[in-house]
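In full, the data:

***
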Amino acid sequence: MILPLSVTSTFFFILNVRKIRPTSFGTRVSVNPLAVGRKVICIGGTVHHLMAGYGGGRKSIVPGIASRETIRMNHERALDPEKPMTDVRVGSGLVENNPINLDMREAGAMVHVTFGINIVVDTSSRHSGLFCGEFDKAWQASCSYVQKGYGLPIDYQADVVIASCGGFPKDLNFYQSTKTLFNASRAVKEGGTLIMLAECPEGSGSKDFFDWIKPFSKGCLDEALRASFTIGGYIFYVACESIRRSKTLLLSSMEPELVRDMGVRSFKDMKDLLAEVDFNGKDVYVIPYGGSVLPQTKEAYERICREAEENGGAK
């Protein structure tokens, strides 16, 4: 009998995990018992990742086959341990001092992975790179490829940034569109203007994402997320941080009131939106594939490329 995915996932998460040992960060590692004491082949996709630096590789173990507790303990490290903000060591392309990545790699090493396969796709979701071999080295090579291919070196942050998500399904809802928000906000000056183009036919998206508007409206988002951490909550948290940096305008079919309390002004008509923007004497960047391209200052781009190569990346 084949059980529905929701049933099998719950079974493995709650009833059937094997405890291994804690990482040096204190994360208690428990995984699917089918992977313990066996040779394992991991297949993953490598992209810039908001929390882990890059997807793929060790993420096949955590969160891939890990218990809810292990995932929660690892992901909670995305928040600054002392201040009400995200940890500055955590973010897309950051791996060297990233506590989430380092913790994941420790946990991943507890499973006997004999071979790794890492796939990279282009902006149209077609295969553009395949990296196979020793688990960690193959993943590191794929990270270097992603950074060089999708990291975008910029001379300076612009006054105005216009960014499209890149079309369906990357703008299916506002939750999916946040990747463009996170990427494009790196290219705009603090206090500048960010214009996002996102159709969002399904509105705001995941309930786990948008329900966090309640503690946000009460001014207790940080406390609420630390008390009950979820991925949706963290994405909402980072979205609010990004929105605060600039004047954020959205062209979308979504009802404007859905994102108004987050500080986003949403428009259904381009003329109405453009009437709110002063382009006179302003530097403007246009990013057609905001969900895929990661703007970085030239200094940051070169440093991250260098780190990827020194850690075994592709030359």
Q: What stands out?
A: Confidence is low (pLDDT under 50) at residues 1-12. Residues 135-150 form the longest helix (16 residues). The longest strand covers residues 188-197. Residues 53 and 92 are 4 Å apart (CA to CA).
